[in-house]
Amino acid sequence: VQLQASGGGLVQAGASLRLSCAASGRTFSRYGMGWFRQAPGKEREFVATISWSTGGTYYADSVKGRFTISRDNAKNTVYLQMNSLKPEDTAVYYCASSYYSTAVDPKNYHYWGQGTLVTVSS
After folding, report:
1. Which candidate, 73, 79, 110, 75, places its Cα nearest to that of 8?
2. Is-contact 66 120, C-beta < 8 A?
3. What CA–CA distance (Å, rounded) separates 115 from 122?
4. Per DSSP, what are the bridge partners of residue 72?
5. Which of 17, 50, 75, 92 is most deeply buried (CB count within 10 A of its CB)?
6. Sign, Cα dihedral of 92, 40, 97, 16
7. pLDDT at site 30
8. Is the dihedral of CA 28, 103, 52, 78 positive or negative?
């Protein structure tokens, strides 16, 4: 599976962005998908995940209620809608796929995209 993330950019606090992650491969629908982020000088952290089987979602507390993960299996694409962005959301955002239905630990993800930079100014 190859993943290509896009949609990052520079926005002001309170704005919205939608990230996309396009996946190659015929079995996209059978992978759990997740978004992670890494801010400068910090470790990569979990943001959100969506199950391939149930469509169930799970979010980090820091983004719950502001971010929404979704997937379109017909388009082999997973999205991250980010609303009410804050300066602390500034990071490189990565999409990843997992053989598990859902996963929070990055060690349980097997394929990673190249990342897209989101910068939120105050």
Report:
1. 79
2. no
3. 23
4. 77
5. 50
6. negative
7. 77
8. negative
Digit-by-digit pLDDT tens for the chain (122 residues) are 899 999 999 999 999 999 999 998 767 677 899 999 999 999 999 999 999 878 899 999 999 999 999 999 889 899 999 999 999 999 999 999 998 888 999 999 999 999 999 999 99
Beta-strand relationship, 116-121 and 91-98: antiparallel
